[in-house]
Amino acid sequence: MKAGTIVSAPGLLFGAFGLAALLTPFMTLAANRIVAGDGIMAWNLAEPSAVLPGLAAVLLGLALGLPADLTKVRLAGSVLGLAGLLWLAVQGAPALLDGAGEYARVSPATGFWFLLVILMLLMADALAAMSPGPLMRGAVLAAVLGVLAVILWSGALSDLSVLKEYASRRDAFGRELLRHLGLAFGSVAAAAVIGFPLGVLCHRRARLGGAILPVLSFLQTIPSLAMFGLMIPILGWVGNTVPGAQAIGIAGIGFAPAYLALVLYSLLPVVGNTGAGLAAAPPAALEAARGMGMTPGQRLLRVELPLGLPIILTGLRIVLVQNIGLAVIAGLIGGGGFGTFVFQGLNQTATDLILLGALPTVALALASAIVMDILVDLTRRIPKVSP
Amino acid sequence: MIEIDSIAKTYDGIKAVDGVSMTVETGTITVIVGTSGSGKTTLLRMINRLEEPTSGEVRINGASTLSVKPHILRRRIGYAIQGHGLFPHYTVARNIGAVPELLNWSHDKIRARVDELLELFSMEPAQFRDRYPAELSGGQQQRVGVARALASRPDLLLMDEPFGALDPIIRTRAQEDLRRIQQRLGSTIMLVTHDMEEAIRLGDRIAVMDGGKLVQHGTPAEIISRPATDFVANMVGDVERPLRLLSLIPLSEVVEDGDAPGDALSPEASLRDALSACLWTGRTAVPIVQGGTHLGRVTLGAIRARAEAHE
Lengths: 387, 311
Prior knowledge:
Number of domains of chain B: 2
CATH superfamily of the largest domain in chain A: MetI-like
Radius of gyration of chain B: 21 Å
Shape of chain A: flat
Number of domains of chain A: 2
Largest sheet of chain A: 3 strands, antiparallel
Strand order of the largest sheet of chain A: 2-1-3
Largest interface: A-B, 23 and 31 residues
Strand content of chain B: 15-25%
Number of helices of chain B: 14
CATH superfamily of the largest domain in chain B: P-loop containing nucleotide triphosphate hydrolases
Number of helices of chain A: 14
Oligomer: heterodimer
CATH class of the largest domain in chain B: Alpha Beta
Radius of gyration of chain A: 25 Å
Number of strands of chain B: 12
Distance between the termini of chain B: 30 Å
Shape of chain B: globular
CATH class of the largest domain in chain A: Mainly Alpha
Order of helices and strands of chain B: EEEHEEHEHHHHHEHEHEEHHHHEEH
CATH architecture of the largest domain in chain A: Orthogonal Bundle
Structural class of chain A: mainly alpha
CATH architecture of the largest domain in chain B: 3-Layer(aba) Sandwich
Helix content of chain A: over 70%
Strand order of the largest sheet of chain B: 6-7-8-3-9-10
Distance between the termini of chain A: 35 Å
Structural class of chain B: alpha/beta
Order of helices and strands of chain A: HEEHHEHHHHHHHHHHH
């Protein structure tokens, strides 16, 4: 088949960068969790017989990413490459630790991370070419998360430094995960409860919208560190003066100021997108709705809201991804969440402890973004076909 | 019967509609015609209270429209607008069933009514029921818009430039459909347009608006032959007046015994059609045939006599 011989441009790029990444250190071996380690190339990780299958899988995976038209082959290539990557890490970590001392630590290095990103991009590129429907994308996400969970559960990677950091903080990790989810999802929920009626009001009364939106925009321009800092004196004062406030946990530091800061950051996208979503209904349809005897409430529920829902949900998606990231800063003012590990790691110059906070945050943000995109697609009510 | 009683609307001291009174008989089409800014659309929108009148009132079958809440009133009055205003996220069936749904009709009753209307508008229900507006042609969208306005068997159908967005060929067909359906259902229709041609073609009565005032209200023949003001004469178009008058008279009114050569016309065709056929083919008479039966002929002389007898 002649068409199959055409080379995919991104595939070529992934191949070239992948080869370059293989020429950088794949893992580092350090004497303990704080000092900088030595880079180890992929082929030096362990015995050649143990390393070769992994190297071959990575190279073959990159090569399979080349043909432009064979989407399924490219997808298989990305999966094979990722399996090779996993193989190298699983084989390399115990081999390097063997005889390196009690406190020695092994971590993935530049080569591993670059290859991980490149192979994931290859997978995304191949999947995008298949243009999967919303349900299919949900299934793919579930499969990826499932495989990730099985790998972590199996303990195959437990020799890696970041998982050793996890092992010594198992209880704290669970607690901070719940804290982080509470901060991110809780603040989005509060922002939706406050912002949605506010958005409807701004849409109905243009003058009110003209007064509210600039205030919310101003809140958005406050740098995040300053915003969290500002909450300390304000909520500290509230906690000290309002009777009973301290009893329900309102104080200058901790969960409350972080939560409030995140809610304030969320209001502009929620209110703005609610207004934009409601304004998306065609004027003629609204005129017809009024002319046929719909009340304002019926127009909102039957016409404006269904037509605006994708835009409104897009606002929630922006806020959710933003707050999952921003919630890290809560760690700085005692608000908990994955930021706790990040800032502890920074203080101790323990890179892997920083990663223990950062990696789950990134994974959470990515997964949330995909789920929200699926929801946005599912709520599109107008068929895209033309006659 | 719709009675409009000295109705007026003032915006910031400017009279958009200035004391208009008229009566619309049940089962007729009244076309309100005027230039833009003449107040014709405001007049129409005051009938279903999309605009509240500054003074005066409208009575439908004797009951004032001010006696019920506006949204309840509007569910009894059909409303079709330019650019159809269909809900893009509703199927054709849900669009047509929108008002019955507001009136809490049963599911089965709505479904039967939707199919009945689709058939009335020559759209196969099984084929069109579940389509979305974006999947229809402009003419089909417009028909669904009118079907939606008729769905609850309203006392009155208001139409604001309903054919404005259609191209000329589809517009002519839509006008014929409306005439046919109105006669079948016996609906009372008030329609706003700026197109005098459309007014003459559709209207049982024509109301000409100028500067917020009703300047003339009468049958198309009266408007054409005895325009009340220069403005009306201008709207009708002096040069075309005889042709417009002829277009109102069916051949059946002037058919006489005898034969004529060439292609035949039906008795429902207008004198204008017969005149056009005579001039184009160099004949002095055309044969009239209905369903294969020869009825007689119409001569140029008879056409001329009718045109001269307008006073």
